[in-house]
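Next up, a chain.

===
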Amino acid sequence: MVTPKSERRTPPAESPSITRKVSVESLGSVDLSREFSALNEHILRSRRITINPGGSVAWHEHQQRPGVAYLVEGTLIEIRDDGSGVRSIRRHAGEAVFESTGVLHGWKNDSNQAATAVVIDLVPNPQP
């Protein structure tokens, strides 16, 4: 799963409403309860997410799931509202996109090549 079901929201007209043509590969995680007692039952997770041509990640709102997405290859359009209004931003390989509570966004791949990002985020541990 790319985004938790509980974070999905009704998208603005220009943003994708569904996730499609996306693959997710786990790269590993660290149990943060062993590092910081305040982060009990949380992990620092790393995933490789590939959005194929014509693919998308549905509009969603981050809720206590901060993270960063580093675009390794390709280009994507991020439709984003971080409190300053909805806007479309073309993202390129080598860019880092920060995600924090309250950020609403979705992704579209309108190119003819796959786009791959490494996403690192802080999430509840599914096996506390």
